[in-house]
Design brief:
alpha/beta, 47% helix
Length: 249
């Protein structure tokens, strides 16, 4: 599954799942753009790991929720490296709280980053893909978008919204040979889950038929498949990477 000659952009690519995706795409030969918004050190670490392994990558700092910044960043990438062939909309935040006490601002921030950000980034790269008549857009949704979760109405709504966005985009772009798909991770070992108390982690594992949390590399493998030529005839779909926690469509 080679991606030699392809330009990839991974939003939220400096840590966790995003970092694993960047490493995997770079190992397949892509020139990978590592996007971050506020932690340059983590982005530099990701870049160093890729380059040490002989891969190609670059750093692109911008806020996915800022339309002007997104447009400027994609324009700069196109001028410097070429138009983006593969976009992974991975950037996401949480502002958890029960709905009865949730501030409007916490709703807006999560929807702006997790859902609107994917819209803005996709819109910015899609013309280049359509012109080439080849492209891959991969949206990172979540098991929470399918199961729901108390205290995460904003996050669940955003992640469910990504599925609808994906299906509609897939229909619009199919004629130009641009595929649009989702990956829906379950509970994955990241900074966020590692910080959960031990009893909470054990309770989560009881809900997972495979009995363990996933690794970022498990998610990156699904992204790699969707980005590759092995996925020429799949669009508008969601790949669930959750250990069997959710088995719906």
């Amino acid at each position: 599954m080679t991606l030699a000659g392809k330009i990839a952009l991974v939003t939220g690519g400096s840590r966790g799942i995003g970092r694993a995706v960047c490493l995997r795409l770079a190992s397949m030969g892509a020139d990978v753009g590592i996007n971050y918004v506020s932690r340059p050190g983590a982005a530099e670490e990701t870049l160093a790991v890729i380059e040490a392994a002989g891969g190609a990558a670059f750093i692109s700092q911008f806020d996915v929720a800022d339309a002007t910044a997104v447009a400027a960043a994609v324009k700069a990438i196109t001028a410097d490296r070429g138009s983006v062939d593969i976009l992974v909309n991975n950037a996401g935040i949480t502002r958890d709280g029960l709905m009865a006490r949730m501030r409007d601002d916490d709703w807006d921030k999560v929807l702006d980053t997790n859902l609107k950000g994917a819209f803005l980034c996709s819109k910015a790269v899609m013309r280049g893909m359509m012109k080439k008549r080849w492209g891959r857009i991969i949206n990172m949704t979540s098991v929470i978008g399918f199961l729901g979760n108390a205290g995460q109405v904003n996050y669940g709504a955003a992640k469910a919204g990504l599925v609808g966005l994906t299906k509609s985009m897939a229909r619009e772009l199919a004629a130009r040979n641009v595929t649009v798909n989702c990956v829906a991770p379950g509970y994955i070992v990241t900074d966020m889950t590692s910080g959960l108390p031990g009893e909470i982690q054990e309770a989560i594992k009881l809900q997972i038929p495979l009995g363990t949390l996933g690794q970022p590399e498990d998610v990156a493998a699904a992204v790699a498949f969707l980005a590759s030529a092995d996925c020429n005839y799949m669009t508008g779909q969601t790949l669930h990477v959750n250990g069997g926690m959710y088995m719906g469509n």
